[in-house]
Amino acid sequence: MANGESEVGADAPAGGFVQLLTPEGERVDSVTTAEGVTYSVSFTDEEYRELYRDLVTVRRLDAEATALQRQGELGIWASLLGQEAAQVGSGRAMRKQDMAFPTYREHGVLYTRGIDPIMPFGLFRGVDQGGWDPNEYKFNTYTIVIGSQTLHATGYAMGVTMDGRTGGPDGEAVIAYFGDGATSQGEVNEAFVWAGVFNSPMVFFCQNNQYAISEPLERQTRIPLYRRAAGFGFPGVRIDGNDVLASYAVTRSALDNARNGNGPTLIEAYTYRMGAHTSSDDPTRYRIASEVESWKAKDPISRFKAFLTKQQLADDDFFGQVDEDARTLALNLREQVLAMPDPQPISIFDNVYPNGSPLVDAQRKQFADYQAAFEGSAH
Ligand SMILES: Cc1ncc(C[n+]2csc(CCOP(=O)(O)OP(=O)(O)O)c2C)c(N)n1
Ligand SMILES: [Mg+2]
Predict the structure, then answer these.
(1) Residue whose C-alpha is closest to residue 179's, from 205, 142, 207, 150
(2) CA of residue 273 to ligand 2 center, whole Å
(3) I need a surface site. Which of 62, 176, 198, 331 has the fewest CB within 10 A?
(4) Which has the closest alpha carbon to 349: 324, 368, 333?
């Protein structure tokens, strides 16, 4: 219970969630769950300000990418709008040696790993595979095949144990990101089984943004997603996914448990996808405006700004400077995107197999002939 009161915030779904910062920007000192686990955070003033900077920066990068897609410079974009706190909090909770397995939406986590934020722009333009080295940054490549990365992560985590790289503060833990919709995939349930029975150093971080494209949460599950973990024999915790402090506290605790041999945790970050599923989607066809409006009041950045202001940790000069720095970074990214080459459709046949394949080679030739005929007919 928070400060002797309920862990259930006024805006919490039935069953409650861990919240350390209310939508109004009020700090909750600590939260103790029904299982008796207490969560809290302790940051310096500077660390609080840096978290705010992260949140604003990743939202600004995302807005720039959305604009670039609309202007025909990116083929598609999967926006993180609304999910900044879930991503920045959990990303910053990782220790340097921890390994992450993302989906296609984790631009905020990517940023916290120290990867140049231009990388996903090249991927979504279609000119490369992302470009970062997963081993160097301990952040795997983006994964589009829903849920598959949870098995990759679990296999990797089993390897960490077999190699003896767990235990102590320098031990390694693994975090797999996935969405609410992914919980209906066989792979995710198989990953839960394997990670559970092998007591793997895993954190399953589910961003429940309420939709799998147009499918709402009530078509995904009859019980809250975090409660699924009980059936696999490990703890499940629901957090306010729009609260960067709760995301940090619970993820840090779960990763440390994992690295110390205490097995996996499922974290359900209860949040909302404020934008479209991707730039190819029109959410007005399946959800009503008042729902989106109600989530605006729970915005992860405005609550953090309200907190910093109330606590006199930051002033208007600081907020203005953060906005200006984010804008400069975004404009720099724009210039880099405009300087990128056009995507070459024929390149989709590259990198399918390391040593090629007769079938793919035949398909490449067929496509090249088609392109040549197409280009010929245009003249
Ligand atoms: C195996 C598989 N099936 C279907 C798709 C098509 N698809 C792309 S995103 C998506 C919905 C995913 O929803 P969720 O897991 O909630 O993640 P979100 O996009 O909301 O972050 C689907 C069905 C896919 N990429 N892979
Ligand atoms: Mg979803």
Answers:
(1) 207
(2) 7
(3) 331
(4) 368
Yes or no: say if 142 and 123 are a contact pair by the CB < 8 Å rule: yes
Residue 185 alpha carbon to ligand 1 centre in Å: 10
Nearest of 40, 24, 183 to residue 103 by alpha carbon: 183
Question: From the CA atom positions of the chain, what is the Rg in Å?
Answer: 21
Helix (H/G/I), strand (E/B), else coil: 36: coil
Superfamily of 2-338 according to CATH: Thiamin diphosphate (ThDP)-binding fold, Pyr/PP domains (3.40.50.970)
DSSP 102-142: --SS-HHHHHHTT--TTHHHHHHHTSSS----HHHHTBPPP
Nearest CA to ligand 1 atom 6: 146
> Environment class of residue 99 by beta-carbon count within 10 Å: exposed (0-12), middle (13-18) or buried (19+)?
buried
For residues 267 and 203, the answer to whether their CB atoms sit within 8 Å is: yes
212 in contact with ligand 1, CB cutoff 6 A: yes
- pLDDT tens, position by position, 245-286: 999 999 999 999 999 999 999 999 999 999 999 999 999 999
- Rounded CA separation 258/252 (Å): 10
Residue pLDDT, tens place only, 286-339: 999 999 999 999 999 999 999 999 999 999 999 999 999 999 999 999 999 999
Per the CB < 8 A criterion, the answer to whether 52 and 304 are in contact is yes
**What are the extents of the domains in the chain?**
2-338, 348-377
Name the residue type at position 379: H
Give every CB contact of residue 162 below 8 A, 6+ residues apart in sequence. Answer: none
- Active-site residue list: 273, 277, 286
Q: At what angle do helices 84-93 and 300-310 cross, to 10 degrees?
A: 70
The rounded distance, in Å, linking the Cα atoms of 167 and 199 is: 13
At 26, the amino acid letter reads: E
Report the C-alpha gap between 253 and 262 in whole angstroms: 11
What is the rounded distance in angstroms from the CA atom of residue 59 to the CA atom of residue 283? 19
